[in-house]
C-alpha cells in the first residue's frame, strides 16, 4: 500500500539515475528500456535537533583505534588491507558461480571459531548451506546460519544474536517490506544496503555483502552500491580454469588493486601463496616463439606472468585482433608502434594475445613484453628462456620508466631467471645479484638485443 507523502520516480536499473517520467532511453547512461517506477521512502526525520551531535574541534576528536582482526585466510586479509576493520561494510562482487558463497562461508568458518558469526543466505536453503559447509570441512562452534530475505527481520536477528561478523548472501535477494519494487531493483538494493551500513556503523559489526555482477560487468543494482560501502572486492577468474582472483576495487582502509589468489578445488578454495610459479605455463628451460615473461606488479605484490602472442597471415577480410588478460586497445597501439617505428609489417596478420593463467594485467609496464611477444611470433624467433622483460612503450617507440623495478627483478631471480631487459631510463639504481641486466631506450633496440 502506498502512503500519502511517499514519492515515486522512475529509476534506471543500470546507473540508478532518477527521471520524473518514463522514457525509453535513460538520459544518464543512454541504455534502453531500463527505467522502472519505484517508490521511494521519505528519509527518516530527526526527532529533535537538540539531540544532534555538536561539531567538535579536530583536536578533540577521539581517534578510533585501528583494531583490525584477521579472517584466518592470509590472502583474504591481504586484499582487505591487513584484516577486517570493525563496523565496515564489505561488498564482494562477482559472476554467478565464481565462488563467492564458498569464499565467504570458508571465511565465516574461520572467523566462527573465535567470534560469533551470522551467515544469512537468501539464495540457498539451510540444508544446502549445511552440505556445503560439510564439504568444506567447516567446524566452527560460533557460526550461526539462517535463511532470510526480509531486511527488517535480519536486523532483528542482528540485535538478538549480536554477531561480530555477518555475511549477507546476496544483496540482490534482500527486500524491505515497505518498498513495493522487486528484490534486486535499485530502490530495494539501496534501501537494504543503507540499513546495513547504519547497523554496521552503530554496532561495530563487520558485514560482508555478496553482490552479483551483470552481463555488462558491473554490480547488478547499480554503481550506487559501490558508493555506499567501505570496501569493494571483485572475485574473478576464468570458470574453465580453477584459479580465482580476489581484487580490491575500492578500500577506505587500505590500498586498491591488491590481489588475493586462490584455487578452486573439490574441498573449496585453497590459497596460493606463490602465485608466480602458477602463471608460468611453460617449462622453465624451454621457450617457444611468441612467449615472453614479464615481472608485473599487481597491488603490492610482484607477479611473474607469461604473455603469449600468435600472429597468423590473413589473406582474406579484415584481420582479427583478440586479447585476453591485456587491454585490447593497448595491444592495437603496440602493434601500430611495431609497424611504424620498427618496420614490422603486421597489418595483414590476425593477432592473438593471451596472458597465461587468466590473470588480468592492467599496468602499462607490460607493454614491452607484449611488443616482444608479437615480434617473436612474427619473426618466428624465440627469446632466451631465462629472460624477463619489462617496460612501458610510448607512441614514438621509446621505452619508458617503470616503478618498483627492484622488487620485480628480485621476484624474477627467486624464480630462477638469469637475465632482464629493462628501460634504459631505469638502470641507474638497479642492481640485483645473479641477474644480468640489459637496457633498451626504444622498442627497436629491445628487438636488436633479444633476437
Ligand atoms: P559458489 O560459491 O556457489 O558461487 P557463487 O556464490 O559465486 O555463485 O560456487 C559455485 C562453484 O564452485 C560451483 O560450480 C562448484 C564449485 N565448487 C567447487 O569446485 N568446490 C567446492 O568445494 C565448492 C563448495 C564449490
Ligand atoms: Mg552463491
Strand order of the largest sheet: 6-5-7-8-4-9-10-11-12
Radius of gyration: 26 Å
Q: Mean of residue pLDDT?
A: 86
Could you say what the CATH architecture of the largest domain is? Answer: 3-Layer(aba) Sandwich
Give the cofactors and ligands.
thymidine-5'-diphosphate, magnesium ion
The total count of helices amounts to 11
Poorly predicted ranges: none
CATH top level assignment of the largest domain: Alpha Beta
Strands, count: 21
How many domains?
3
Query: Mind describing the biggest β-sheet?
Result: 9 strands, mixed
Structural class: alpha/beta
Q: Name the CATH homologous superfamily of the largest domain.
A: P-loop containing nucleotide triphosphate hydrolases
Shape: globular
Q: Using the coordinates shown, work out and report the CATH topology of the largest domain.
A: Rossmann fold
Oligomer: single chain
Helix content: 25-40%
Amino acid at each position: 500500500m502506498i502512503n500519502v507523502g511517499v514519492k515515486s520516480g522512475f529509476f534506471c536499473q543500470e546507473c540508478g539515475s532518477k527521471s520524473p517520467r518514463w522514457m525509453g532511453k535513460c538520459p544518464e547512461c543512454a541504455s534502453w528500456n531500463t527505467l522502472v517506477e519505484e517508490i521511494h521512502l521519505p528519509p527518516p526525520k530527526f526527532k529533535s535537533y537538540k539531540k544532534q551531535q555538536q561539531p567538535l574541534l579536530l583536536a578533540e576528536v577521539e581517534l578510533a583505534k585501528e583494531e583490525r582482526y584477521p579472517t584466518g585466510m592470509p590472502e583474504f586479509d591481504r586484499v582487505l588491507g591487513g584484516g577486517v576493520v570493525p563496523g565496515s561494510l564489505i561488498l564482494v562482487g562477482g559472476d554467478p558461480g565464481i565462488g563467492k558463497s564458498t569464499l565467504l562461508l570458508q571465511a565465516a568458518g574461520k572467523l566462527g571459531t573465535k567470534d560469533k558469526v551470522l551467515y544469512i543466505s537468501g539464495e540457498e536453503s539451510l540444508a544446502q548451506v549445511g552440505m556445503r559447509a560439510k564439504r568444506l570441512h567447516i567446524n566452527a562452534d560460533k557460526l550461526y546460519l539462517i535463511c532470510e530475505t526480509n531486511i527488517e527481520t535480519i536486523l532483528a536477528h542482528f540485535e538478538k544474536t549480536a554477531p561480530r561478523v555477518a555475511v549477507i548472501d546476496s544483496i540482490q535477494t534482500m527486500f524491505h517490506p515497505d518498498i513495493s519494487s522487486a528484490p534486486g531493483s535499485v530502490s530495494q538494493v539501496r534501501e537494504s544496503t543503507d540499513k546495513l551500513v547504519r547497523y554496521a556503523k552503530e554496532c561495530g559489526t563487520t558485514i560482508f555483502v555478496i553482490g552479483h555482477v551483470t552481463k555488462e560487468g558491473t554490480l547488478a543494482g547499480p554503481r550506487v552500491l559501490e558508493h555506499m560501502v567501505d570496501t569493494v572486492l571483485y572475485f574473478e577468474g576464468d570458470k574453465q580454469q580453477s584459479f580465482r582472483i580476489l581484487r580490491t576495487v575500492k578500500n577506505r582502509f587500505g590500498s586498491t588493486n591488491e590481489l588475493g589468489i586462490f584455487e578452486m578445488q573439490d574441498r573449496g578454495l585453497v590459497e596460493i601463496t606463490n602465485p608466480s610459479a602458477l602463471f608460468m605455463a611453460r617449462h622453465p628451460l624451454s621457450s617457444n616463439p611468441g612467449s615472453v615473461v614479464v615481472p608485473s606488479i599487481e597491488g603490492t605484490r610482484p607477479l611473474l606472468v607469461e604473455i603469449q602472442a600468435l600472429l597468423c597471415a590473413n589473406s582474406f577480410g579484415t584481420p582479427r585482433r583478440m586479447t585476453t588478460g591485456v587491454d585490447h586497445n593497448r595491444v592495437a597501439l603496440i602493434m601500430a608502434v611495431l609497424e611504424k617505428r620498427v618496420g614490422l609489417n603486421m597489418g595483414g596478420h590476425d593477432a592473438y594475445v593471451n596472458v597465461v593463467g587468466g590473470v588480468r594485467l592492467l599496468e602499462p609496464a607490460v607493454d614491452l613484453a607484449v611488443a616482444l611477444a608479437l615480434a617473436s611470433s612474427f619473426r618466428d624467433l624465440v627469446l632466451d628462456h631465462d629472460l624477463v622483460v619489462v617496460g612501458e612503450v610510448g607512441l614514438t617507440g621509446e621505452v619508458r620508466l617503470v616503478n618498483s623495478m627492484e622488487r620485480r627483478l628480485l621476484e624474477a631471480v627467486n624464480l630462477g631467471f638469469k637475465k632482464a631487459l629493462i628501460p634504459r631510463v631505469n638502470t641507474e639504481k638497479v642492481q640485483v645479484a645473479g641477474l644480468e641486466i640489459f637496457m633498451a631506450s626504444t622498442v627497436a633496440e629491445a628487438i636488436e638485443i633479444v633476437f
